[in-house]
Design brief:
The protein is mostly helical. The protein has two domains: 61 residues, no CATH class; 66 residues, Winged helix-like DNA-binding domain superfamily/Winged helix DNA-binding domain (Arc Repressor Mutant, subunit A), CATH 1.10.10.10. The protein has seven helices and no strands. Helix 2 packs across helix 6. The longest helix has 20 residues. The radius of gyration is 16 Å and the shape is globular. 18% of the residues are buried.
Length: 143
């Protein structure tokens, strides 16, 4: 979901594990393996965005271009996923890590290199933006 492209995501996963293997001796066990690998994966995805060709290719993906989803997924879930992907990157990262990956605030904070309070604050702002986008709530404050 970070790269909006399944093939790029597969490449990023491979690069993540190659980097993790190469740097295994640098892992200090100050965080869990999960947060360490997730941080490497995020960095690999960011490296893809930094490449010159990526900036010149229209990589926008709409939900109708994605693979067919199981029948149990309803339109509300699609709308929520689409709105999460429209969030600014800082809010999207914490939303993906906490809501979709099931990380705790502490794990997400370690992964992103921010404080636990920053994770909570960003999730709060993401929740407000999603509520506004999905319901048109009047209590929206720009993040």
């Amino acid at each position: 979901m970070y790269l909006h492209d399944e093939e790029l995501a597969k490449d990023a996963v491979q690069e993540t594990f190659i980097n993790a293997y190469r740097n295994l001796d640098k892992f200090r066990s100050e965080s869990s393996e999960k947060t360490w690998l997730t941080r490497i994966a995020i960095n690999c995805c960011k490296n893809v965005y930094r490449t010159g060709w990526f900036r010149h290719v229209d990589r926008s993906v709409t939900l109708d271009k994605l693979a067919e989803r199981p029948a149990s997924v309803d339109q509300e879930d699609d709308a929520i996923t689409a709105e999460i992907m429209n969030l600014p990157i800082k809010l999207r990262e914490v939303a993906l890590l906490c809501w979709l990956q099931g990380m705790t605030y502490d794990e997400a904070a370690d992964t992103l290199g921010i404080s636990r309070q920053a994770v909570g604050s960003r999730l709060n702002r993401a929740r407000k933006r999603l509520r506004f986008a999905l319901e048109g709530s009047d209590d929206h404050e720009p993040a």
